[in-house]
TrEMBL record:
Keywords: Aminotransferase, Antibiotic biosynthesis, DNA-binding, Pyridoxal phosphate, Transcription, Transcription regulation, Transferase. This is PLP-dependent aminotransferase family protein. It comes from Amycolatopsis plumensis. Residues 4-70 form the HTH gntR-type domain. SUPFAM superfamilies: PLP-dependent transferases, Winged helix' DNA-binding domain. It comes from the Bacteria. GO terms for molecular function: transaminase activity.
Amino acid sequence: MSESSSVRKVAARLRGEIECYSDGSKLPSSRELISRYRISPVTMSRVIAVLAEEGMVTVRPGAGVFRATHARGGVDVPDVSWQEVALNAGGDGEPRVVDASAVLTALTDPPGEVIDLNGGYLPSALQPEGALAAALSRAGRRPGVWNRPPAPGLPELRRWFARHIGSDTGAITGDNVVITGGGQSALGVVVRALARPGAPVLVESPTYAGLLAVLLSAGRRPVPVPMDEHGLRPDLLADTFRGTRARLLVCQPTFQNPTGTTWPRQRRLDVLAVAREAGSFVVEDDFARLLGHADAIAAPPPLAADDRDGVVVHVRSLSKAASPTLRIAAVSAHGAALERIRSLHAIEHFFVPRPLQEAALELVTAPAWRRHLRSLAAELRDRCDISVSAVRDQLPGVIVPVVPAGGYHLWLRLPDRIDESQLVAEALRAGVAVMPGKVYFATGPPAPHLRLSFAAPATRGQVSEGVHRLADALRRLG
């Protein structure tokens, strides 16, 4: 058992014990607690530190540890009810929705004994930690590393992104690129730059839950467009453009989140043609381009590589393939759209810290980066195979509509009789965390689903064990 797991477990037990003490009462000595819980003095110190930070205990040097004294009666509780009026006053009378629940769930690590089949980032074991450390060290020695960078980003890093986004077609240069602090930040800037408040924004159905959160918090209106096994349906997309007069579509043509679908080349061309006809921008969120699986057919080039009219605004991130804390992404665009994005990013963020940009440039231009992507592709292929096999063997009635050729997750279609919220709760009790499907739909979900991340666990064994625990939870629900 890891020390962090021991700290959590002992702290949980002590919380219950402390409730039996009156305010100001002294707890047993550290020596007694160490013996009772069979932990080290260092672990005991960390347990006490956790409880002290929570306000449950106070530490008096030389005297011991005591249950915290909480004031009773006569407490002046502030009245903040006025804020509800202030936050919702003005405008069209409709309060802006700021709901980060799905985003925060994905960013919160489950307890140590729970297998994480929910997270959207690589565990430490799959991150190129050695290459990251070396890149950071080299970046720290670069001349002027602590000086302010150009607002759009380092020219060398922008050119690197341009080559990879444009697939060496020359359609994109470094001048078309803005470096941002991660893909989520990029989506927020792009949406606000290209769509007016209250405007409809077309999205895939289902789509990335974080995108829905961005749109709603920015006061834009997500409008779902159905998909088939090849991606967005061009016929329904054209109908939705006509019905809404929308001027913005946000999509993930490669290894889509959550379905794993990759649009074939003809579907990409068809969608671009529909968008051009509607006079709409297409935001291509290419978040998983670097997560292709070994031995799979390579994904078609980005939409941006086939765009000569400035229709496509492309978003590319390094966080998924490297580390969640390498908050580096790039937005490419043309014309007035580029100027708006560049200006809004400068207003809201000034610039991305130069040391982080320098480290990213050192990382992606080193031979170790290409080795990392090759080994990651093989690992993701094996984990995907393990998860698909485990689901088909252990989850009767659960369908895997798409076996992805890249990315880090499976989209599971549950039997109609299953309540996905109940299953998610029961799964957590069984020791595995998964994401309910309803958070990926802009309107009510047509059927129950789950998203299962096979990249998040520390080991391959945890992938299969996680599916086994999910099967236990499903059996408990009958």
